[in-house]
Structures are given as C-alpha cells and as structure tokens.
Amino acid sequence: MQLTTRLPKRRASQRPARKPAAPPQPVREHPETRAARRGGGPQDEALYSCSCGYVFRAPVTTAISCPHCATEQAW
Questions:
Q1: Domain extent listing, the chain
Q2: Could you report the per-residue pLDDT of 22-34, keeping only the tens digit for each?
C-alpha cells in the first residue's frame, strides 16, 4: 500500500527539544542482601549432629560420615 500524499519533512527547528538525561539514582539494596554480599555469598556447608553426640560442619553432599565415629549421616 502506498501513500497518495507526501508528508512534509520536519525541519531542525520543528523538532521537539530533548530533555537532558537525569543522573542515575543509586539502587537501594535490602540490608540482608548487602550483608550476604559482604560475607562472600552463600556457603555450601551444613551443621550435622551424629548419634554419638558429635556435632560438626561439613560440605553439603548426599553421602557424609561422622569424622568422630565414621557413621553415615542421612541427608
């Protein structure tokens, strides 16, 4: 489909003036997010307690055993 009439060209003086860009606003983070970033992010460790009474931290895996008595821990 073609236009039957031509549209007039805009001259530079007819263009609307552009507003200057506003400086970007600082992004406010949630305090917990900020604390997690300062702390190095999430840690892949869990606190395990064995039936022998020993409590220990170890990496999160599906198969972990107690370093005190070598009993397998259920996850």
A1: 43-75
A2: 888 888 888 888 8
